[in-house]
Amino acid sequence: MELVVSLEFSGGAELLFDKVKNHEVSLPARANGPWTIKHLLVWIKDNLLKERPELFVQGDTVRPGILVLINDADWELMGELNYELKSKDRIVFISTLHGG
Amino acid sequence: MCSVQDGEDVIPERKKTGKFTEGERRPCMKCGESAAVIIRVNDAFCRGCFLTYCTHKFRSAFGKSKLIRDGEKVLVAFSGGQSSTALLHLIQEGLSERAQKKLRFIPSFVFIDEGAVLNQTQEERSETCQQVAALLQQSGFPWNIISLEKIMQESNSLEKFELSEQFESLHVSEKDQEELKSLWNSVKTLSAKEEMIRTLRSRLLVSIATAGGYSKVLVGDTGTKLSIRLLSDVAQGRGMHLPFETGFADCRHPEMKIVRPVRDFTAKEVAMYNAFHNLQPLVLPALTTKAASNASIERLTETFVTGLQADFPSTVSTIFRTGEKLSVEDMDSEVDRCQFCQAPLDTNVPASSALNATLFSQSLSQKSSTSTIGGASNCDKTDSCCGEGDGSCQTQKDFRLTKEDLADVLCYGCRLVIKDMNSVDDLLPANVLQSAAAAVRRKKMKDEIQDFLLPS
Ligand SMILES: [Zn+2]
Ligand SMILES: [Zn+2]
């Protein structure tokens, strides 16, 4: 079953996504196991990012200086990369880096 | 709601593997509600307690320093970014009637449009200004928008600074714009450009504030930004200036204090503050927007500091506390200042210093190659002073300030900024050249009469 979540990029992170801040996305069902933030980052890199992926992801996580909020809470409280996405989750990426 | 269990307040292992369940979410350390943000490894706050913590921190910064008097007019530099947006909101909250420890100063806001050096078109610049104007108008505080080109004007201070009611169009003189662009293009490296714009911006802020009758300028530098600056300043030969560049109050200008009220906030705290209040900071292009992480010294330092901070959340506070140990002695108004950035000169050092060694090897290598510096550097003996001693040398029109002359009255960091420029006397703002020329003449006269002075 597809999983619908909303993604939001701000603080300059949206510059890497054609300046589009809000994205409603439906993620295809995963054969092996649930969707986690870790999988979501790979999906974003392959499907949404328009340019300079290294300014958004580094290794398997987000570039340092980009904050992640899961349903208005710091992802550090939510298991970070291992958080399992639920339908209608709202994931916000905020760049705190100078110039985005 | 969960209560604090024994042993739960020890530093939690960051879980790298394993499934997360909602029940594991940590409670707020203040009220026990579900937490929404982690500040340091141990401090988890819910939304409400986090916002209270921010307001307290902001107010106490003013309380502790007692720098700003009740009813004092202050000018706030607003850039539209994350920290400016939070600063504006914190001031608004602090002045409101319901505030507990009410702030009692009277703020006005100014936005400096730097579109010219970002290669923006007139339309793009107008659009930016419209957005900023809308935000400032909404705040209800008095405000104005000034273009960076104003720094090229003759006089050291603007004649007047008026607050505006609405934004019509950006006033830019074409001559100033041309001059600023040629200055900008003569600065070669991105690192030097970043230094240059920082100095120009701060000179302009000071002259705007002076013209408006203010004696304090508030800026939105966060602790994260200042730790990055601290390290990149050391890398760029400004180690002597650290207390000025990163302190709560920068008092290098005799009549104007630059105050940094959000320096106890990290970039994360500021961004979370805005997110929880639903504030939308503007995303305006900067010199290093979308640039690689090694594009400039500052950018590289930012990558380094934020990278460390991600793995060691106390990085920023550690760097910062180290910087804290350096303090500024009260600046004597007689002290020789750098004629560009206004910080005390750090070049008056013993002959055996590293600086003099560098200068010596530079002079050796220059002897073999022909100097490319414009202007005649050896004719100043005949040109610059008429020898009458009645002040008539002040009227000399053909006093040409060479790069070497200028370097003499600049700090080490500013010398590096002008190092790659082909000439200076037709590029730098007129007001910088005027005061530099005066300082050069004073210095020369002092050197000439040195032997006749009684030792004091
Ligand atoms: Zn709480
Ligand atoms: Zn300087």
From TrEMBL, chain A:
Cross-link (Glycyl lysine isopeptide (Gly-Lys) (interchain with K-? in acceptor proteins)): G100
Any single Gene Ontology cellular-component annotation: cytosol
Localization: Cytoplasm
Pathway: tRNA modification; 5-methoxycarbonylmethyl-2-thiouridine-tRNA biosynthesis
Classification via InterPro entries: Beta-grasp_dom_sf, Mopterin_synth/thiamin_S_b, Urm1
Alphabetized UniProt keyword annotations: Cytoplasm, Isopeptide bond, tRNA processing, Ubl conjugation pathway
Modification comment: C-terminal thiocarboxylation occurs in 2 steps, it is first acyl-adenylated (-COAMP) via the hesA/moeB/thiF part of the MOCS3/UBA4 homolog, then thiocarboxylated (-COSH) via the rhodanese domain of the MOCS3/UBA4 homolog.
UniProt similarity note: Belongs to the URM1 family.
Task of the protein: Acts as a sulfur carrier required for 2-thiolation of mcm(5)S(2)U at tRNA wobble positions of cytosolic tRNA(Lys), tRNA(Glu) and tRNA(Gln). Serves as sulfur donor in tRNA 2-thiolation reaction by being thiocarboxylated (-COSH) at its C-terminus by the MOCS3/UBA4 homolog. The sulfur is then transferred to tRNA to form 2-thiolation of mcm(5)S(2)U. Also acts as a ubiquitin-like protein (UBL) that is covalently conjugated via an isopeptide bond to lysine residues of target proteins.
Protein name: Ubiquitin-related modifier 1 homolog
Species of origin: Lingula anatina (Brachiopod)
UniProtKB/TrEMBL annotation, chain B:
Pathways involved: tRNA modification; 5-methoxycarbonylmethyl-2-thiouridine-tRNA biosynthesis
GO molecular function: nucleotidyltransferase activity; sulfurtransferase activity; tRNA binding
Main location as per UniProt: cytoplasm
Top-level taxon in the UniProt lineage: Eukaryota
GO CC annotations on file: cytosol
Keywords: Cytoplasm, tRNA processing
GO BP annotations listed: protein urmylation; tRNA wobble position uridine thiolation
Location within or outside the cell: Cytoplasm
Record keyword tRNA processing present: yes
Protein family according to the UniProt entry: Belongs to the CTU2/NCS2 family.
Function: Plays a central role in 2-thiolation of mcm(5)S(2)U at tRNA wobble positions of tRNA(Lys), tRNA(Glu) and tRNA(Gln). May act by forming a heterodimer with NCS6/CTU1 that ligates sulfur from thiocarboxylated URM1 onto the uridine of tRNAs at wobble position.
Identification of the protein by name: Cytoplasmic tRNA 2-thiolation protein 2
Species for this entry: Lingula anatina (Brachiopod)
Gene: LOC106172526
